[in-house]
Write a structure and sequence with these properties.
The chain is an all-alpha fold. It is built from 13 helices and no strands. The chain is globular, with a radius of gyration of 22 Å.
C-alpha cells in the first residue's frame, strides 16, 4: 500500500501570516490612506509593489503549493519522492517573501548608509531564497508528474494545466529574482515596473488561473455535485494556452525591443489573444456548469442508492453543512471570473475597433485576483483542509458564511470603484462613495483572512474523530 505524505499545515500558516501582514495588511494601510485622502510619503510605491508580491507568492502561492503537494501525488497515484523538502520549501519561500516585504518599503525611509546596505542585502537574499524555495517545489511537483501512474485518466485530463503552472513558476521566479537582485545591486527601491507587471501577468495567466481550473474540474463534481467532466478538458487547456501566448508574447517582444517598428502589429495580436483568452474562460465556466446547473449531477449515473435510514444531505450537495456555506464563496468566485473574462473580451474587441476600452487592465487584474482567486481560496480552504487534516468538519461552520459576506463585500468595494469609475464620476457624490468604499476594502479583506485563519487553526486542534 502506498504511503502518502501528510499535509504540511505550515504552508497554510505562512500564507495566512503573510496575508495578514504584507499582503492584506499593507493593502489595508494603502487603501485607507488613498480612500480617505491621507498624506502619503514616497514609500507608498515601494509598499505597493511589496504588497502585490506578497499577495501572489504568499497568500495565493503558498496556498497553492501546500494543497498541490498533497493533492497531486494522490491524483497521480505516486507519493512524493523527497518529502523532507516540504518544510524547507515553505521556509525558504516564506523567508524570501518576508525579507522583500520588509526591506523594500524601509529603503524609502532614508536610513543611514549602514542600515541601507543591510536592507539592500536583505533584498538580494530575498530573491535568492525565493528561487531556492520555488526550485524545491518544482523538484517535488515535476518529480511527481513524471512518475505518475499511466492508468490515471483523472490526472491526464488536467495535466496541461499543471504543466502551465510549472512554466509559470519558472518564468515568474526567474523574472522576479532577477529584478530584485538588480534593484538590490543598484540601490533602487522599485523593481522595473514594466517587467514586474509582465511577470505578474504570467503568474496570473500560467499559474493561478490554470491551477484553479484544474482543481475545479477534479473537485467540484464531488464537492458541489456538478456533472462529471466528460468534455474535452485538455483541449480547452490547449486553446487557453494558445490564447495566452498570443496575448503575452507581443508584450515580451516589446519589452525586449526586438521589433520596434512592428509595435502596432504586436498590440493587434495581443488584443486578439485577450479576446480568445476571455472567450475560452467563459466556455470553461459554461462547460463546468457551476453557475447555471443545466445538467444533472454525476450521482444520477450511480448504480444503487443510499438506504432509507441514512440522513439526507443538504439539497443538491453531498455534505450535511459541516463545512459551512463554502459553496456560496465558490459560486461568487466563478461569477467574478465570468465578469473578468467578459470584460477581457470587450476590452480586446474595443482595442481591435480602435475605440477606448471600457475596462482598465488593472480592474480586470483585480477582478481575477481579489474577486476570483481570493474568494476561491476562502471557499476551498474550509472544504478541503479539514479532510487533509483527517477532520470530519470545519471547527466553526457558521464562520464560513461570515467569511462569505466580509470577503464578498471586500472584493466588491475593491473592484467596484475601478470598474464603475466613469459612472461614479457622473453621479453626485459618487466619487466620495467610491473612495470611501475603496478605503474600507482593505480592512474587510484583512478581517476575512483573520476569520479564515482562526477557523482553520481551530479545525487543526479538533480531535481526529470530530
Amino acid at each position: 500500500m502506498l504511503k502518502y505524505t501528510e499535509f504540511e499545515f505550515g504552508f497554510v500558516l505562512a500564507a495566512i501570516g503573510i496575508a495578514l501582514t504584507a499582503g492584506f495588511g499593507y493593502a489595508a494601510v494603502l487603501a485607507v490612506m488613498i480612500g480617505f485622502d491621507l498624506s502619503m510619503g514616497a514609500w507608498w510605491a515601494a509598499m505597493l509593489q511589496a504588497h502585490g508580491h506578497a499577495q501572489l507568492m504568499g497568500w495565493t502561492g503558498l496556498f497553492i503549493i501546500g494543497v498541490s503537494l498533497y493533492f497531486v501525488p494522490r491524483l497521480a497515484g505516486v507519493p512524493l519522492r523527497f518529502p523532507r523538502l516540504l518544510p524547507w520549501t515553505c521556509a525558504f519561500l516564506t523567508l524570501g517573501i518576508l525579507f522583500r516585504t520588509l526591506a523594500q518599503p524601509l529603503l524609502h525611509s532614508h536610513p543611514s548608509e549602514t542600515v541601507r546596505l543591510g536592507l539592500r542585502w536583505m533584498m538580494g537574499l530575498s530573491g535568492a531564497a525565493e528561487a531556492i524555495g520555488a526550485g524545491f517545489y518544482l523538484i517535488l511537483l515535476v518529480g511527481t508528474l513524471r512518475r505518475a501512474a499511466r492508468h490515471r485518466p483523472a490526472l491526464r485530463s488536467v495535466r496541461i494545466f499543471l504543466l502551465m503552472a510549472v512554466c509559470g513558476w519558472v518564468f515568474y521566479t526567474a523574472i522576479g529574482s532577477t529584478l530584485v537582485l538588480s534593484a538590490a545591486c543598484e540601490g533602487s527601491t522599485l523593481l522595473q515596473i514594466a517587467w514586474n507587471r509582465f511577470g505578474i501577468g504570467l503568474f496570473l495567466g500560467l499559474v493561478l488561473l490554470p491551477v484553479a481550473m484544474a482543481f475545479s474540474v477534479r473537485t467540484f463534481p464531488l464537492y458541489l455535485r456538478l456533472p462529471a467532466a466528460d468534455w474535452p478538458v485538455q483541449r480547452i487547456g490547449m486553446v487557453y494556452l494558445l490564447a495566452l501566448t498570443l496575448e503575452q508574447l507581443p508584450v515580451l517582444i516589446a519589452l525586449l525591443n526586438l521589433f520596434p517598428e512592428q509595435e502596432a502589429t504586436g498590440r493587434l495580436f495581443s488584443s486578439i489573444g485577450g479576446v480568445f483568452k476571455g472567450g475560452t474562460l467563459l466556455f470553461f465556466i459554461w462547460k463546468l456548469d457551476i453557475l447555471f446547473r443545466r445538467h444533472p449531477p454525476w450521482t444520477t449515473r450511480r448504480i444503487g442508492a443510499p438506504g432509507p435510514d441514512r440522513r439526507p444531505t443538504r439539497k443538491g450537495l453531498p455534505d450535511y453543512g459541516e463545512f459551512g456555506r463554502f459553496e456560496w464563496l465558490l459560486y461568487a468566485a466563478y461569477a467574478w471570473l465570468a465578469l473578468g473574462a467578459g470584460l477581457e473580451c470587450i476590452a480586446g474587441l474595443a482595442a481591435l475597433g480602435g475605440i477606448p476600452s471600457p475596462a482598465d487592465p488593472d480592474a480586470i487584474r483585480h477582478i481575477y485576483l481579489a474577486g476570483f482567486i481570493s474568494l476561491l481560496i476562502f471557499g476551498m480552504a474550509p472544504r478541503m483542509v479539514p479532510g487533509f487534516l483527517h477532520k470530519r468538519r470545519v471547527a466553526y461552520p457558521a464562520l464560513v458564511a461570515v467569511t462569505f459576506w466580509v470577503a464578498g463585500a471586500a472584493a466588491f468595494f475593491r473592484v467596484g470603484p475601478l470598474v464603475l469609475s466613469d459612472l461614479m464620476d457622473r453621479v453626485p457624490g459618487g466619487l466620495m462613495v467610491s473612495t470611501v468604499a475603496f478605503g474600507i476594502s482593505g480592512l474587510l479583506s484583512w478581517t476575512a483572512v483573520a476569520v479564515l485563519g482562526w477557523n482553520l487553526w481551530a479545525t487543526r486542534r479538533l480531535k481526529k474523530a470530530a
